[in-house]
């Protein structure tokens, strides 16, 4: 029987600059439902998850509460809180909204095609390793380039993974890492949560297989792909 308390932090406080749409991308409709609906629905239906914290853009909390949480009856969403300027500020706000839990699943609201399998695999892994991130092996060759776009290195592809979310941690560990990050104030280079734990605490983060459909909808062409991957809502 599951005894751990698991909380999902779903991030929806971004501005979607690269999408360039009038409506923020997390609220754009996919098969008639807002993009953010899909990952919330997957967390809602997965019994490993006890509660969800939804991080919305500052000022959008009421809209999210009414148009997302109440409309679609996401009973596990216990609070809708404002995010911050950068993604890591939004994550830090989410972590501070939690008083205690065992594991926290940090997920991009712009990744609608999260599956129950991915949650289950990452739960098994985080219990064993305290820190894990979902990702996929890269299919293309990756080159490192200099400032003039000349290739300077071709890293061994078999050692490269593309990182997705959720990124899943023991709560105490990731809370400590984020608190240290904000204390030190040198957060400019942070692009994911695992990096915070790696840099601040030297944590060894385990990779868990995600899915090639677990895309982050970032630019207009991703929306077309998302329409194809989207389950019938
Ligand atoms: N996010 C957030 N708070 C921020 C920035 C991002 O909660 N200050 C969230 C986004 O809503 C998204 C996820 O983090 O679900 C991944 O970010 P990204 O894809 O970069 O989304 P945006 O920041 O909205 O897009 P862009 O960078 O193009 O402006
Ligand atoms: Mg962004």
Automatic annotation (TrEMBL):
Pathway in which this enzyme or protein is active: Isoprenoid biosynthesis; isopentenyl diphosphate biosynthesis via DXP pathway; isopentenyl diphosphate from 1-deoxy-D-xylulose 5-phosphate: step 2/6
Class in the EC hierarchy, top level: transferase
Domain of life of the native organism: Bacteria
Keywords assigned: Isoprene biosynthesis, Nucleotidyltransferase, Transferase
Gene Ontology MF terms: 2-C-methyl-D-erythritol 4-phosphate cytidylyltransferase activity
Reaction equations catalysed: 2-C-methyl-D-erythritol 4-phosphate + CTP + H(+) = 4-CDP-2-C-methyl-D-erythritol + diphosphate
One of the Pfam families matching this protein, by short name: IspD
Signal peptide: none
Site feature location: Positions MEP for the nucleophilic attack: 157, 216
Family membership noted in the UniProt record: Belongs to the IspD/TarI cytidylyltransferase family. IspD subfamily.
Protein name as annotated: 2-C-methyl-D-erythritol 4-phosphate cytidylyltransferase
Source organism of the structure: Diplocloster modestus
Record lineage: Bacteria, Bacillati, Bacillota, Clostridia, Lachnospirales
């Amino acid at each position: 029987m599951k005894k751990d308390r698991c909380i999902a932090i779903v991030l929806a406080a971004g501005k979607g600059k690269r999408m360039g749409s009038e409506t923020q991308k997390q609220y754009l409709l996919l098969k008639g439902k807002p993009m953010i609906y899909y990952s919330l629905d997957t967390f809602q239906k997965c019994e490993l998850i006890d509660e969800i914290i939804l991080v919305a853009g500052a000022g959008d909390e009421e809209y999210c509460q009414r148009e997302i949480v109440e409309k679609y009856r996401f009973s596990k969403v216990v609070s809708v809180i404002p995010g911050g300027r950068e993604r890591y500020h939004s994550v830090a706000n989410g972590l501070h909204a939690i008083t205690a839990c065992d594991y926290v699943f940090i997920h991009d609201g712009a990744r609608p095609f999260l599956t129950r399998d991915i949650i289950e695999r990452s739960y098994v892994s985080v219990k064993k390793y305290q820190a894990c991130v979902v990702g996929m092996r890269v299919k293309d060759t990756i080159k490192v380039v200099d400032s003039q776009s000349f290739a300077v290195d071709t890293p061994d592809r078999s050692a490269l993974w593309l990182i997705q979310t959720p990124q899943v941690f023991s709560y105490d560990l990731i809370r400590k890492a984020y608190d240290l990050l904000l204390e030190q104030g040198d957060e400019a280079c942070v692009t994911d949560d695992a990096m915070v734990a790696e840099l601040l605490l030297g944590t060894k983060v385990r990779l868990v297989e995600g899915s090639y459909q677990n895309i982050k909808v970032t630019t207009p062409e991703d929306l077309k792909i998302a329409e194809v991957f989207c389950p019938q809502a």
